[in-house]
Amino acid sequence: EQTETITYDMLDTLAKKSYPLCMRHLHEQMTKQHHLKHLGRLQYRLFLKGIGLSLDECLKFFRNEFVSNGSMNPTQFEREHVYNIRHAYGQEGKHTSYTPYSCVKIIQDPPPGVNEYHGCPYRHWDPNTLKQRLSTNYGIHDEQVLNEIVDRSQNHHYQIACQIYFEYQHNVKNHGIGINHPNQYFNESRKILTG
Ligand code: SF4
Q: Which positions make up the signal peptide (predicted)?
């Protein structure tokens, strides 16, 4: 059950505290480059819908990044992006409410190419990159935990690697949740952090 009202200016903080790595990476790249390629946009905006970001706030977020901070002109944004965002929210076309992607889908979908940031880091990043980013950018300073995450990823246990990261980040041991969905990760995190 959704208890927090989430606005787009909260996303930077939420990304740091409560996003799984797949979504945190997309958020960081989007706010850094002020753009995101097609598959990344699909993966991220459905996640945003899933965490309870309203359609209006989602439009504000994309418009702010692509147009205000980025170089896209407003007309192009309206033409190329507004419909698709509304569509993801079930407000256009067949009014289907699209389901945010599960871990299995993200893990099995086509891997990210050059300048693409979708996918699952435990699946799609090479072990050195994963280890280096976890320690430099994502605050894992325990060598044993780092090695465990990389080993699990190497052995194709991506969701277990994600769970180890979750437990470390939230300072809970043997929390017992199996991670199977980025939105489930987020919800569990909010439960722990907001009580
Ligand atoms: Fe995202 Fe799932 Fe991969 Fe975790 S295991 S990073 S939630 S796709």
A: none
Express each pLDDT in 168-195 by its tens digit: 999 998 777 899 999 999 999 999 999 7
What is the ipTM metric for this complex?
0.99
Among 47, 15, 39, smallest CA distance to 114 is for: 39
Cα→Cα distances 130→36, 51, 158, Å: 21, 26, 12
Q: How many whole angstroms separate alpha carbon 61 and alpha carbon 184?
A: 22
The beta strand positions in the chain, using DSSP E, are: none
* Positive/negative CA dihedral, 155, 156, 160, 166: positive
Taking alpha carbons only, the member of 48, 12, 21, 9 closest to residue 140 is 21
Q: Which amino acid is at 159?
A: Q
Residue from 105, 133, 162, 183 to probe ligand 1 pocket by mutation (most atoms less than 8 Å from CB): 162
Which is the closest atom of ligand 1 to the Cα of 121? Answer: 6
Q: Read off the pLDDT of residues 68-78 as tens digits, 9 standing for 90 and up.
A: 998 899 999 99
